[in-house]
């Protein structure tokens, strides 16, 4: 039965190619909206080839879920009002009208149908997008439309892409020569969608020489895809590394330079993330127009809030505990519990939603099997900006000079007139502020909840210790190195084992080289 | 050096315990009440899912108390927070049973927490109502399972994915958090897929730690795997890891029309923190969806909305949501009340006897029945697709309620196991 339908549809399409656009009938409209998905798809394909404007509008409306129906009528909804899909007249919509439901199968057919229609659009951009959507289509019913569009296409790049779509459809052609031509053309593309088409064909292909052709084509494609995969591993490693770098950078100052074992470091990140959440809500409430840019405002706010909390912490607790690492550890750990409980009381124990701004959602397709998400790219760039800022500050500014001086020799610095207590506070606030920045970045990729810091505190200590205490360069190398190592291992052995292996690696490494990758040299090492 | 380290460890534990007890505090004992224990994580990675279950039980207790209570007594809730910490679940369960003397406990979400409290309930011959879908392979006299067994959720979902309407998937990625529920469910699903003629090379099984947040590699792997044929992902990821997973899926441009993801632990509540637009069309299999239309469900949603507003429950006061485990908690609680009324006492053994065959009009639209023998509910299965507003479109459902099979026939060792709890001799 289904095959019959298919044949019928193909026939209709073929006829439609030479016929003029036909007006939509109420029965056709209803058949596309109500019923089992398979019947609706058949109805959709039946009207597709010679669709007039009203049909296109209806298909678009169905795809946008803005159609309602009752036992008797179908309504296209626009701004809360119902219109008849055939006449376009406004109709009263009864309360019991049901919303249209499009399951996946229907949705992908709708997408392809709209794309097939857009193949004939005068707009080049629309045609390019349409060809892209049709890339992995295997439905032979679309062939006549694609053929027609291919003949009419004048832009070379679109014609080439369309040729590939056509080749994909011709894989099922009954003439052997057509199949061989199609395979030769497809072998050059190297996209996963084409690979799927070829594998499917290989299963049903009967002729031996065509089979060898397909095998050869699959090998060519695999070789191309392998490059995308390798680059993908490097990118994901860099991305994880940049996150590790961000979370460890603040600690590299408070623990690395100042020697404070700050167990509340994770909670300072959490505060930064919550600050981002609050800024997001403020923007949504008061500046909905500029919502996409809330993150830019959130960056300084999260830095400021965390730095302030850090400064209070230093003034209130930590300054009494310098030189007593065990007490510092316990006190800051207690503080971390208090901060978590405080956030729980204010915002609730549940995670809070932080939405990615539109320009951080989605990704850029570098290769057919490699998409780089914008939020990850942004975090990598952000991590290096922060790193650059911190490095400059430590190396070039007066504050940086004082910080270096105080950490190297507190008494000497004090003797030459540096207010060491104030410098301690500034340095601790700086480290805390950077933790806040890390929290702001983390809110774009993960969950924001009271426990956010807990999951990163171990990682951040790991990076600082591995890199070598007191060295920014060590933190950078350790962060990025661990990120890439973790991702290579994960691809090979799965996430759970990878995590264990990384930990084992660090334990062994620290055993062999307790001072970390970069060791402090000279007198300051003993201080 | 060694001693100091150990001392530090000890003082850390001491502080932890101190903080835990301070934070919670036990409810003072009132005179003539029946105590009801609530054992759900209110913090930690599972708080995203479990917090509302506590609130649903509290709401149901309020409702019963307003109508005069049970056996002439008021119900008194005792809420504890095991903080997504599995051993702490056992500790808190012990405290509820022996210290607070509760008549029944409603609690647990993850199977590992249930496994951790199970010996406590069996030793003390106390009652636990477990409201979440799970992997089966367990049947205790002291537990009533009001969530789905695998044949009431996982297997129908996979059957749907393999059907034409579901996309006709040929290859499957089994992705889960690394603990007993995903591992056992995937074992059952693998055997089931084998029985349907799917080879091992077309099944890719992957696990991540609890609280995992970097899904880049996994999403890239799914993309690669899907080039080999129509692929579907079966996700048993639990807790808040779902948010980064779905975010990554959306950003990597993997759409539900290409590779549908069906999840067994993602419902309306878990989607609250997610931007759902890129997820439209991904699936979930449950025995209840908030979007199901019938008078019982409308009533249930209204009750919950009113309660959430009155109690100022974060999130729900502005946007009340209900989900499957909430429904299961609600059914379980009401059945317990009915059973206590029938038995005329809260005595564990008598209540267990009275539970057999209890019925309750469920918000999912069926009259839910407790199986006379196997301690599981008969349930209808629904498959829903995620809509842009975070609700689900029901695209498929079973014709009627299905009886649970706690011992899956797809695991060979289960042959000959009895469909009812083993009776242990007293003493």
Task: Tell me what the structure shows.
The complex is a heterodimer of chains A (about 525) and B (about 425). Chain A has 21 helices and 7 strands. Chain A has about 525 residues and is mainly alpha-helical. Chain A has 2 domains: about 200 residues, no CATH class; about 260 residues, no CATH class. In chain A, strands 4-3-2-1-5 form a 5-stranded antiparallel β-sheet. Chain A has a two-stranded antiparallel sheet with strand order 6-7. The longest helix of chain A has about 50 residues. Chain A is elongated, with a radius of gyration of 31 Å. With about 425 residues, chain B is of the alpha/beta class. Chain B has a domain of about 140 residues: Response regulator (Rossmann fold). In chain B, about 40% of the residues lie in helices and about 15% in strands. Chain B contains 11 helices and 15 strands. In chain B, the strands form 3 sheets. Chain B has a 7-stranded mixed β-sheet, with helices on both faces. A 5-stranded parallel β-sheet of chain B has the order 2-1-3-4-5, with helices on both faces. The longest helix of chain B is centred in the first third of the chain and has 23 residues. Chain B starts with a helix and ends in a 30-residue tail after the last strand. The interface between A and B is large, with 66 and 66 residues.
Please outline what is shown here.
Chain A is mainly alpha-helical. Chain A is built from 21 helices and seven strands. In chain B, strands 7-6-8-9-10-14-15 form a seven-stranded mixed β-sheet, with helices on both faces. In chain B, strands 2-1-3-4-5 form a five-stranded parallel β-sheet, sandwiched between helices. In chain B, strands 11-12-13 form a three-stranded antiparallel β-sheet, covered by helices on one side.
């Amino acid at each position: 039965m289904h095959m019959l339908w298919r044949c019928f549809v193909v026939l209709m399409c073929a006829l439609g190619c030479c016929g003029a656009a036909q007006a939509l009938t109420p029965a056709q409209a209803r058949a596309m909206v109500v019923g089992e998905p398979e019947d609706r798809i058949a109805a959709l394909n039946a009207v597709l080839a010679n669709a007039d404007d009203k049909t296109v509008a209806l298909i678009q409306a169905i795809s946008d879920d803005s159609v309602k129906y009752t036992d008797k009528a179908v309504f296209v909804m626009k701004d809360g009002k119902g219109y008849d899909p055939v006449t376009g007249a406004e109709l009263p919509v009864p309360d019991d009208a049901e919303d249209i439901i499009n399951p996946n199968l229907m949705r992908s057919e709708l997408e392809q149908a709209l794309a097939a229609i857009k193949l004939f659009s005068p707009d080049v951009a629309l045609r390019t997008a349409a060809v892209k959507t049709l890339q992995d289509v295997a439905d032979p019913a679309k062939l006549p439309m694609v053929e027609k569009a291919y003949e009419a296409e004048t832009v070379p790049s679109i014609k080439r892409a369309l040729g590939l779509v056509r080749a994909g459809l011709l894989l099922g052609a009954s003439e052997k020569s057509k199949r061989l031509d199609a395979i030769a053309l497809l072998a050059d593309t190297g996209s996963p969608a084409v690979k799927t088409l070829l594998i499917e064909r290989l299963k049903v292909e009967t002729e031996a020489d065509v089979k060898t052709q397909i095998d050869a084509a699959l090998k060519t494609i695999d070789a191309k895809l392998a490059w995308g995969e390798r680059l993908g591993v490097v990118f994901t490693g860099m991305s994880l590394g940049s996150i590790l770098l961000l979370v460890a950078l603040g600690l590299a100052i408070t623990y690395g330079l100042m020697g404070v074992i700050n167990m509340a470091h994770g909670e300072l990140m959490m505060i930064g993330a919550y600050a981002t959440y609050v800024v997001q809500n403020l923007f949504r409430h008061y500046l909905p127009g500029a919502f996409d840019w809330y993150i830019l405002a959130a960056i300084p706010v999260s830095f400021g809030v965390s730095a302030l909390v850090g400064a209070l912490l230093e003034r209130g607790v930590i300054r009494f505990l310098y030189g007593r690492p065990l007490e510092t550890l316990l006190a800051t750990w207690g503080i971390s519990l208090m901060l978590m409980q405080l956030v729980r009381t204010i915002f609730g124990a549940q995670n809070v939603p932080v939405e990615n701004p539109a320009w951080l959602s989605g990704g850029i397709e570098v290769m057919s099997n490699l998409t780089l998400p914008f939020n990850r790219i942004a975090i990598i760039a952000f991590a290096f900006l922060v790193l650059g800022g911190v490095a400059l500050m430590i190396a070039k500014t007066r504050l940086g000079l004082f910080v270096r001086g105080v950490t190297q020799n507190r008494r000497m610095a004090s003797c030459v007139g540096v207010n060491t207590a104030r410098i301690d506070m500034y340095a601790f606030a700086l480290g805390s502020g950077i933790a806040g920045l890390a929290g702001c970045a983390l809110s774009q990729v993960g969950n924001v909840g009271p426990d956010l810091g807990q999951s990163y505190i171990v990682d951040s200590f790991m990076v600082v210790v591995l890199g070598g205490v007191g060295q920014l360069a060590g933190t950078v190398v350790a962060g990025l190195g661990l990120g890439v190592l973790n991702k290579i291992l994960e691809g090979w052995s799965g996430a759970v084992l990878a995590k264990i292996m990384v930990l084992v690696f660090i334990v062994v490494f620290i055993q062999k080289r307790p001072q970390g990758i970069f060791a402090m040299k000279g007198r300051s090492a003993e201080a | 050096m060694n001693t100091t380290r150990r001392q530090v460890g000890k003082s850390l534990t001491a502080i932890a315990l101190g903080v835990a007890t301070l934070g919670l505090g036990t409810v003072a004992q009132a005179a003539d009440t029946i105590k009801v224990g609530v054992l759900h994580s209110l913090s930690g990675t599972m708080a995203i899912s479990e917090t509302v279950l506590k609130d649903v039980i509290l709401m149901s207790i309020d409702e019963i108390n307003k109508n005069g209570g049970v056996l002439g007594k008021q119900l008194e809730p005792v809420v504890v927070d095991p903080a997504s910490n599995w051993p702490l679940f056992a500790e808190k369960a012990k405290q509820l049973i022996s210290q607070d003397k509760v008549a029944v406990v409603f609690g647990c979400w993850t199977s590992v927490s249930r496994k951790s409290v199970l010996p406590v309930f069996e030793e003390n011959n106390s009652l636990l109502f477990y409201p979440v879908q799970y992997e089966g392979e367990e049947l205790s006299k002291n537990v009533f399972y009001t969530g789905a067994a695998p044949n009431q959720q996982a297997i129908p979902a996979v059957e749907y994915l393999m059907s034409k309407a579901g996309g006709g998937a040929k290859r499957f990625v089994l992705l889960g958090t690394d603990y007993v529920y995903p591992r056992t469910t995937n074992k059952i699903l693998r055997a089931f897929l084998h029985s349907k003629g799917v080879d091992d090379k077309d099944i890719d099984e992957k696990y991540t730690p609890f609280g995992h947040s970097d899904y880049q590699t996994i999403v890239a792997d799914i993309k690669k795997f899907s080039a080999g044929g129509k692929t579907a992902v079966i996700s048993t990821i639990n807790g808040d890891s779902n948010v980064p997973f779905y975010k990554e899926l959306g950003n990597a441009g993997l759409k539900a029309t290409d590779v549908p993801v069906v999840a067994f632990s993602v419902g309306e509540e878990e989607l609250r923190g997610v931007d759902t637009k890129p997820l439209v069309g991904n699936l979930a299999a449950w025995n209840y969806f908030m979007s199901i239309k019938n008078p019982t469900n409308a009533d249930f949603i209204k009750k919950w909305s009113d309660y959430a507003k009155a109690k100022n429950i974060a999130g729900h006061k502005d946007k009340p949501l209900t989900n499957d485990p909430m429904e299961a908690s609600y059914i379980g609680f009401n059945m317990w009340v009915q059973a206590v009324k029938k038995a005329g006492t809260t005595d564990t053994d008598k209540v267990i006897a009275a539970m057999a065959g209890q019925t309750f009009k469920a918000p999912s639209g069926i009259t839910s029945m407790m199986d006379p023998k196997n301690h599981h509910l008969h349930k209808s299965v629904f498959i829903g697709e995620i809509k842009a507003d975070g609700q689900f479109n029901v695209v498929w459902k079973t014709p009627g309620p299905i009886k649970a099979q706690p011992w899956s026939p797809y695991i060979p060792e289960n042959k000959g196991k009895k469909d009812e709890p083993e009776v242990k001799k007293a003493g």
